[in-house]
Amino acid sequence: GIPYVVQLDLWQSLVYLVLAAVGWYYGWFYHDHKKVACYNEAVTAVMMIFLLSGLVWPNWGDIWHLEEEEHIFHAVLFVWGVITSALAKNITT
To answer: Cα separation of 43 and 23, whole Å?
Structure first.
């Protein structure tokens, strides 16, 4: 078989799809830095929830499971979100 790095579950893929669609919408149609910053903080919060829940309870009753590679992915996106949120506060104020 073909080796895989990360196996995304249906529910997890749907969450990423919704976040991406909202991000594209804000990116194309809104030029308000405050709305984009709010979106960034919401995505950062979702990544924090995924990271913490994956570390504490990685298998949610076979609804989805979070692998170690996904912990790294969520941690990187969480840290990136925190840094960009801090930088955005300097721009919007």
So the answer is: 9
Amino acid at 41: E
Q: CA angle, corner 63, sides to 59 and 66, nearest 5?
A: 40
Task: State the pTM of this model.
Answer: 0.77
Are 63 and 9 contacting, i.e. CB atoms less than 8 angstroms apart?
A: yes
Between CA 63 and CA 10 the distance in angstroms is 9
- pLDDT digits (tens), the chain, 93 positions: 666 666 667 788 888 999 999 999 988 887 777 888 888 999 999 999 988 988 888 777 666 777 788 888 889 999 999 998 888 777 655
Which tokens go with 44? 């950062």
In degrees and rounded to multiples of 5, residue 59 shows phi and psi of -120, 105
Name the one residue in this structure whose structure tokens are 């990423």. 16
